[in-house]
Amino acid sequence: MTQVATAAPTAEATYKPKHGPIDWRGGHTLTFVGPLAFIAIAAIQRIWMQGNAWTIGIDASLPAFNETYRAMFYGEVIAATVATLWWWTYLVRKGKQIVDVPVSHEVEVRRIAKFWGLISTTSVELTIMAAFWPNMDGAWHQTAVRDTALTPAHIPMFFLFFPIGITLTVGTYLYGRYWLPKVYGAENGFPWSFFLLISASVTEMMQVAMNEWGHSLWITEEIFAVPFHWPFVLYGWLAAGIFALWAETIIRLLGIEAEIEAAGASGQEAVA
């Protein structure tokens, strides 16, 4: 009898994680760890600023300002740049290796759970960058003089959380592009949902330059309704594209359920 050789199952297809794909310590771990990490970073910075913003934070020419807030500025820019380049490079390199590897339904569900974790992390980060810090920034500039773009409120908002918004939105797309090819694969084209979401984070970052120009050369007072603040509203509309990401992956989950049911029915027919 001739023996037919069968291909060995791939590592991804045979991988059995310790926790199930939808366990809290399984695929959903990132849903908690990611948001809490950004909340902790924002809280630590805000608490630290509470004790020194009115002493060393109102005069950018002071040596103490260079040792604290300006040093924070350089540290944030360098850290955000390095982290972004490393993560995006990893996602592309690793993604190209696995995008065409068949995986089980269990692995795909686990990936969708992680994708939801990225969406949750992005949602919290965008909320921090577009709600928490801007509200503090408005209060700051209504009571303090804007002597430089590097104010205590601007440094974490404009030079850490705004750039990281682009990092997360693009990185989430790259994860979906390579880890969830049946939803966001190249053959499906570039999704409108990510186009809107990424456009939101890029628009917000571009708005920083316009905002500083407007306050430096046009209207120095921090009035929320000034014309060069209007694009911030556009950001909110574009960011609504994030809701479509859940819908798109829920549709795939329903498809996985249908495939499992169809496979079970076929198996029963074969036995019968």
Short description, anyone?
This protein has 272 residues and is mainly alpha-helical. The chain has ten helices and no strands.
Shape: elongated
Q: How many structural domains can be distinguished in the coordinates?
A: 1
Indicate the CATH topology: Glutathione S-transferase Yfyf (Class Pi), Chain A, domain 2
What separation lies between the terminal Cα atoms? 28 Å
Overall residue-averaged pLDDT value? 85
Structural class: mainly alpha
List key phrases describing it.
disordered N terminus; mainly alpha; 272 residues; 10 helices; elongated; Glutathione S-transferase Yfyf (Class Pi), Chain A, domain 2
Secondary structure topology:
Blueprint: H1 11-14, H2 29-50, H3 53-56, H4 63-98, H5 105-143, H6 154-179, H7 181-184, H8 192-217, H9 231-239, H10 242-271
Description of the molecule:
The protein is an all-alpha fold and 272 residues long. The chain has a single domain, classed as Particulate methane monooxygenase subunit c2. Chain: C (Glutathione S-transferase Yfyf (Class Pi), Chain A, domain 2, Up-down Bundle). Helix content is 74%, strand content 0%. It contains ten helices and no strands. It has helices spanning 11-14, 29-50, 53-56, 63-98, 105-143, 154-179, 181-184, 192-217, 231-239, 242-271. Helix 2 (29-50) packs parallel to helix 5, helix 5 packs antiparallel against helix 10 and helix 8 (192-217) runs antiparallel to helix 9 (231-239). The longest helix is centred in the middle third of the chain and has 39 residues, at 105-143.
